[in-house]
Amino acid sequence: MNVNDHPTRTIRPLPNGAVEIIDQTLLPHRLQWRTLMTLTDACEAIVVMRVRGAPLIGATAAYGMALATRADASDAGLAQASAALIATRPTAVNLRWAVERMQAVLLPLPVAQRAATAWTEAARICDEDVACNAAIGQHGLALFQKWARPGQPLRVMTHCNAGWLATVDWGTALAPVYAAQAIGMPLFVWASETRPRNQGASLTAWELREQGIDHAVIADNAAGLLMRRGEVDVVIVGADRVAANGDVANKVGTYLKALAAHDNGIPFYVAVPGPTIDWRIPDAAHIPIEERDAVEVTHIPGALDDALHTVRLTPAGCAAVNPAFDITPARLVTGIITECGVAPPGRLADLYPNPA
Ligand code: MRU
Fold first, then answer.
1. Run of H or E including 143
2. Where are the domains of the chain?
3. 285 pLDDT exceeds 90?
4. What angle do CA 309, 313, 318 make, to 5 degrees?
5. Distance 51 CA to ligand 1 centre (A)
6. At what angle do helices 111-147 and 54-71 cross, to 10 degrees?
7. Residues labelled as active-site residues
8. Helix (H) or strand (E) holding 21
9. Is the link from the previous residue into 28 a cis peptide, with omega within 30 of 0?
10. Residue 52 alpha carbon, nearest atom of ligand 1
């Protein structure tokens, strides 16, 4: 995607053996790159959500393994690094997928060769993510073209941020939006704010503006009304994990959108790259839901006169609970868009005859 008119990826290795990421905790107020030098830096960036979004978490974990090999590339060192990375966030399966892939490539090698290979493999994981998302964009675009009405923008609703910032490039749910823009198709995006971390209001709105896509932010609770009024043509979201039966774990609030879409006859699509599908689990009952700090509900960050502040919303000492994801059952999902094509959730396996 373009940032300040330059094609840019969200994560990049530096010539000095470090890795650079955009610190997403500062957006939309500051676009600031941050250098990760060590495994600990990579873990911290994932835990506090400087990087977030399932594919980007996976890419960062891969580079976290590469950073770890510089300190200790032994079997024990790799095991320790894998455990530290996997403990950072539990729901996005791309994290475990990336760590296991790095282990599978590195462990058979002599220790002296592991560091160089780790950097190559992490770069390969990033390139594959970009290619997957570009393909998702084309498959999603074919759907968008079916619903397009002459002279009118297609009205797309999304939740959280499953765009460029959540991946290495292009995004998943927003990839079809960018593909549609590239062929001049008129579009309008409803970005729901996504309490409590507000990824829709802060990240999706920022990247849509950077890319010049017409959009509006809505309060999460406005989604049902807009659907009922006929102001939404399609809902499209990403996912942190899809079970083999097509159940979807995604940012908390996704389930309510799926229910409202179902009630109003609006297609509800989930866009994911292959590494987001967890073939090991039959259904969502096996997906761990991350519980984050209650302070994310009781307090809110923002900018005032160019300075960043966090303020309290609730009475002091108020109890709060903060599940970060929810489950949308497969029956509410119209289709899943992957790099291999589009399938109803119950036919997902048709797209992957030999799932890894
Ligand atoms: O807590 P986050 O911001 O990491 O959650 C992100 C999401 O829920 C995204 O929708 C999901 O990871 C898909 S990103 C392509």
1. helix 111-147
2. 2-128, 149-351
3. yes
4. 125
5. 10
6. 170
7. 240
8. strand 19-22
9. yes
10. 4
Write down the architecture of domain 2-128 according to CATH: Up-down Bundle (1.20)
**In the numeric block, which tokens belong to residue 94?**
């791309």
Return the best residue to mutate from 161, 237, 296, 326 for the ligand 1 pocket (most ligand atoms within 8 A of CB). Answer: 161
Q: Helix (H, G, I), strand (E, B), or coil: what is residue 345?
A: helix
Ligand 1 binding site (Cβ under 6 Å of any ligand atom): 52-55, 92, 160, 162, 166-167, 171-172, 199, 237-240, 250-251, 324
173-187 burial code (b ≥16 CB/10 A, e <16): bbbbbbbbbeeebeb
Answer yes or no: are the C-beta atoms of 306 and 210 closer than 8 Å: no
Whether the pTM exceeds 0.85: the reply is yes
**pLDDT mean over 122-135:** 98
Which atom of ligand 1 sits closest to the CA of residue 290? Answer: 1
Report helix, strand or coil for 18.
coil
The span from the CA of 200 to the CA of 57, in Å, is 18
Which pLDDT band, with edges at 50, 70 and 90, does 356 fall under?
Answer: low
CA of 161 to the centre of ligand 1 (A): 6
CATH 3.40.50.2000 for domain 149-351: no
Look-up of token digits 């302070």: 295
Answer yes or no: are the C-beta atoms of 46 and 58 closer than 8 Å: no
Residue 79 DSSP SS3: helix
Domain 2-128 matches domain 149-351 at the CATH topology level: no
Q: What is the DSSP string of 156-213?
A: EEEES--SGGGSSSS-STTHHHHHHHHTT--EEEEEE--TTTTHIIIIIHHHHHHHT-
* Cα distance between residue 221 and residue 320, in whole Å: 19
Q: pLDDT per residue over 144-185, tens digit each?
A: 999 999 999 999 999 999 999 999 999 999 999 999 999 999
Torsion sign over Cα 310, 3, 132, 347? positive
Cα(263) to centroid(ligand 1), Å: 25
Given a contact cutoff of 8 angstroms between Cβ atoms, the answer to whether 193 and 287 are in contact is: no
pLDDT at 27 over 90: yes
